[in-house]
Amino acid sequence: MNIRTIDWKDNRIRLIEQRKLPQELKYVNIGNLRSLWRAIKTLQVRGAPALGAAVALGIYLGVKGGDEDNPKAFSRKLDEAAKYLAASRPTARNLFYGIERVCAKAKANRHLPVARIKRIILSEALKVMEEDRVACRKIGINGSRLIKDGDTILTICNAGALATIDYGTALGVIYRAKTEGKKIKVFASETRPLLQGSRLTAWELHKKGIEVSVISDNTAGFLMREGKINLVITGADRIAANGDSANKIGTFNLALLAKYHKIPFYIAAPLTTFDLAVRSGEDIPIEMRSPEEVTKILLKKEVAPKGAKALNPAFDVTPAKFITAIITDKGILRPDYRRSIKKIFSQ
Amino acid sequence: MNIRTIDWKDNRIRLIEQRKLPQELKYVNIGNLRSLWRAIKTLQVRGAPALGAAVALGIYLGVKGGDEDNPKAFSRKLDEAAKYLAASRPTARNLFYGIERVCAKAKANRHLPVARIKRIILSEALKVMEEDRVACRKIGINGSRLIKDGDTILTICNAGALATIDYGTALGVIYRAKTEGKKIKVFASETRPLLQGSRLTAWELHKKGIEVSVISDNTAGFLMREGKINLVITGADRIAANGDSANKIGTFNLALLAKYHKIPFYIAAPLTTFDLAVRSGEDIPIEMRSPEEVTKILLKKEVAPKGAKALNPAFDVTPAKFITAIITDKGILRPDYRRSIKKIFSQ
What we know:
Two copies of one chain form a homodimer. The first copy, chain A, has eleven helices and 17 strands. Helices cover about 40% and strands about 20% of the residues of chain A. A seven-stranded mixed beta sheet of chain A has the order 6-5-4-7-10-16-17, with helices on both faces. Chain A has a four-stranded mixed beta sheet with strand order 11-8-9-15, with helices on one face. The first copy, chain A, is globular. In chain A, α7 links the parallel β5 and β6. Chain A is of the alpha/beta class. Chain A has helices spanning about 35-40, 50-65, 70-85, 95-110, 115-145, 170-180, 195-205, 220-225, 250-260, 290-295, 335-345, and strands at about 5-10, 10-15, 25-30, 150-155, 185-190, 210-215, 230-235, 240, 245-250, 265-270, 275, 295, 300, 310, 315-320, 325-330, 330-335. β6 (about 210-215) of chain A pairs parallel with β14 (about 310) of chain B.
């Protein structure tokens, strides 16, 4: 079964409405900037690579209408769209990458007529989307070398087709391993508060015919101690120049548990997730989300006493020293990451 | 506000129906063995010390009716009740302790008339209940010495009034510290799958006027890295002769995180939670509960795809080497636990 998370159809962005999963596979069509902003904020669309493509297309949505005879007004509109989308969510590097890519392309062509620049923006956004499809498949090929037939893999959150265009990073590695005939079993950490592990990862792995069991996030240590996990693999939202990696809250816990149990801990991410301007994880901005995501299950069922306080950071940072390898579209990076990251970006 | 989790009223066990919290404070009255078994199995009542008192009273419920002229039939009935309740849940030591206490007392008095033995059983069960009330307060006094004014404490699951008769073990320490005028802030790890942290711990701390914030279980590492946690304190369901401690799934993760961040990790439990017959944590039986507790939130809202598998161990074991101290009613135990536990039991 093919899962197409983001597509460009009839001059609109078509998204899988991820809040409806796993009960319902529903699509939403986004035709303007404000709807996209809300879709990002409320996690109708999420996952760093998916966000990158969505905002790239979003910039086009922001500038496609209106006056074509006024280059200055167009340029202002472009800047506004970029600024607006950049304020949707702070952590995923790809979101900024997607905006920067199309804006830089537009600026490089600012001498052209506005109508032409618009077409160039759309074309660049579609390229961002296509490149992610290719990158994920390369991540899959590279990462699959680390997977042995019969492995049981633990993952958290969703770094699959639903976090990218149609394939996945961490789950892309698993899909590729399966294609190569390896029998894989996956434990999906449910990933509170928003349960992307049980709602999304279990859904797509199940669809793709991969054996998956859901666990509460609390169960990771238990399974490792029992010797049930061969390796951990997760995605990333932003990777600093030293290899420190921001990913869904709870990832750091898994990395520490894996280290203690001598289990390999891998990050899978395209180069577009790296942020060389950020020296270490301490400088990665961490999104704080609504306490209600914790006190009410999926913003509905109240599970804490009325008026209870809650703290809800959406990401944490895994220090590079806990990461066995970072699987990218350009190859597998190993420590020392400061060096290996620098090298791969200078090739 | 006084919270009385278990009481003996009108020849029945009166329990707070914990599945209704935090929305509703409701009591249920239990008048027979089968109802008690179901109340235990479905976690209407839970928490190791509370279970100990509940089953002690339960044995009386099991033998109180029927023929009083047949000591043999009575003895058979007693054994059956003990066996039946012992099969309700496997991990908490106190459950077996409660059963053993009243059965041993009955056996020591088997020469007496059946009616008399019954009264002795009830009296012994009430004693088990009263002793827990005293033990918890002693744990509070002993443990409060480890708490400094202004401390921020992380706990998991519920080791409070709702896990005991009316005071708590881990939370008893916090209550005592408050009584002594120390200002405490608590982070309650929500404790998936059944959310005892948000539903029960946040509820009772809030009622008692202690500042509490709920976090997803994934957030513990984040907070420790940020330097926001001064100490971790949890209850225990069974403590082996070497100090290895079984407690709610996820406790081991917290202990490892605390060790890495050089944050003290304390267990608070009465001596009745220790099982000297169990040499180490490996021999503590771990209850596996229904996968549906993971795939459906509070057994209602489905959050995993239909037919998804799940694994749901209810407890994990924290190795003694991660435990800074064990706070008991008879004092604070420090490593080497094999020695300190042996010593305290031989006093």
